[in-house]
Predict the structure.
Amino acid sequence: MIKDITIDMFPTKITFVYGANKYSKFVLSKYGIDNTIYTTGTTLILTNNSKHDIVIGVIKLKNIYQLKAIIVHELSHAVTEIMKNIGSECDEVRSYMLQRFYEDIMPVLDEELLNKLERKKMACSKKKMKPSPKKK
């Protein structure tokens, strides 16, 4: 899953990538950088003149609360970079920005996780539906 986030008033694009392999492939194909998620998540900050690209990658985890906490952690790094670049220390702006990014990512992530769960359930039900081999 890959989700782009932009805020028109800031010259920054954030790309959220779910999954270590997808992250590595995305960063290599888009920016020519060989980068890996070494722990649970990473935030890659790229600057070109006054434009900033931020790529957030998180590994796939079974614990949804841990996964979402890691996403907030990485989004916080992105927000810190944006705040630094616009020269603002306003905590309210920072909080609203973090909230907005979280609200942009979560519905897409939740849909991805739900689809994965449904695929798993369908695969399990197909296995149950197969007739057992008849014994002679």
